[in-house]
Amino acid sequence: MHPSVTLPHPDPFFPEETVINVFQPSLGDEELQAIAEVFADNWLGHGPRTKKFEAEFAEHLGVEPEQVMFINSATAGLFLSTELLGLGPGDDVVLPSVSFVAAGNAVAATGARPVFCDVDERTLNPTAADIERALTPRTKAVLVLHYGGYPGDIAAIAALCEERGIPLVEDAACAVASTADGTACGAFGDISMWSFDSMKVLVTGDGGMLYVKDRELARKARQLAYHGLEQSSGFANARVSHRWWELNVRDFGRRVVGNDITAAIGSVQLRRLPEFVARRREIAETYDRLLADAAGVRLPPALPAGHTSSYYFYWVQLDPAVRDKVAADLLDQGVYTTLRYPPLHKVPAYQGDCGPLPGTDACAENTLLLPLHQALDDAEVHSVAAALRKSVELRSAPDRS
């Protein structure tokens, strides 16, 4: 699929024009064939291909299959994590203000208080010290994001949480192939989730994976993800229960499980993941090379030794006085850029608490994400870099406002 796409759509948010997108999936004949096989088997719901994808992803992480569950979104995983941890009024959850809105929603919806911590301005990830400063006597959990696929200070944060006896939740939505010293991001936490939505590295359209370290809690997660049923009331239970249609619900749940159509796509995408990440790394390295001497442009920091990234984001940092103007210039030239993620401590709905967050405030004003997906060709990467250099140079000139 060609990375420059035309977006015909009646909604004004999707103009009919050709743009180089920040995100874009890579789908092809293998995924179509996998869907065709599901159709031929005539079983579309949660079934054997779901179990197969779960086992494959567990192997990818280096954990046991019973600890992993395919669900319909990482957001569902965030909400499930708050239920599994029993969060509610009177509890505090520490999380970086630079997080996706789903994290804030999941915490605030329980009645617990989000307590926002700062991040390093350059990596946009919190350090263990940032987390520690935000802890309170009522802290019931810590929830961290791996910004752009960078593992960040996850090993030290996990050690801090273990020392304090505080559960760690990893929002690994950006980090499907990221590792720190040989351990997969997501495997550090007590509960973790990955996103496979249409903008991620590995995509299933909608979908996500949940990891729960404690096996008994993992069993409960499966019940909550399917209406709270302790055992299926359908055909699978017909040979082991006299009245298999009777319900045995003790905990209120909902239906957030994945299905065999999306799981079949996921299995193909997981096989292709190494090539996706390799291409994304090439693009990031090309940006590094092309922009290394660009005045007024700060590049992402180098990965620490022993860390690998999924290269989900490529971000540059500019003078706040020109950042928004540069984004507008690039859009005029058919290059879409964006900021991920606007600070949550400024969202009125959360009523979160925090002290000064200088790193967060700085990166919210100076950071811009450039297009990064495996379908970008070299010419487009060069075009983006050239357009960025030119715009920054013009907007930074003394006579430009």
Short description:
Helices cover 37% and strands 14% of the residues. It is built from eleven helices and 14 strands.
Here the CATH topology of the largest domain equals: Aspartate Aminotransferase, domain 2
Globally, the shape reads globular
The helix count comes to 11
Helical/strand content category: alpha/beta
Identify the CATH architecture of the largest domain.
3-Layer(aba) Sandwich
* Backbone CA Rg: 22 Å
Indicate the CATH class of the largest domain: Alpha Beta
Blueprint of the fold:
Blueprint: E1 4-6, E2 18-20, H1 29-41, H2 48-61, E3 68-71, H3 74-84, E4 92-96, H4 101-108, E5 113-117, H5 128-134, E6 139-145, H6 154-164, E7 168-171, E8 179-180, E9 183-184, E10 191-195, E11 208-212, H7 215-225, H8 260-291, E12 307-308, E13 314-317, H9 320-332, H10 358-366, E14 367-370, H11 378-396
Parallel strand pairs: 4-5, 4-6, 6-7, 7-10
Antiparallel strand pairs: 1-2, 3-11, 8-9, 8-12, 10-11, 13-14
Helix pairs in contact: 1-8, 2-8, 3-4, 5-6, 8-11, 9-11
Structure description:
The protein contains 11 helices and 14 strands. By secondary structure, it is of the alpha/beta class. The chain folds into 2 domains: 4-25 and 274-396, Aspartate Aminotransferase, domain 1 (Alpha-Beta Complex); 29-269, 3-Layer(aba) Sandwich (Aspartate Aminotransferase, domain 2). A 7-stranded mixed β-sheet has the order 3-11-10-7-6-4-5, sandwiched between helices. A 3-stranded antiparallel β-sheet has the order 9-8-12, with no helix packed on it. Helix 1 runs antiparallel to helix 8 (260-291), helix 2 (48-61) runs parallel beside helix 8 (260-291) and helix 9 (320-332) packs across helix 11 (378-396). The protein is globular and about 80 Å long. The model is unreliable at 1-15 (pLDDT under 50).
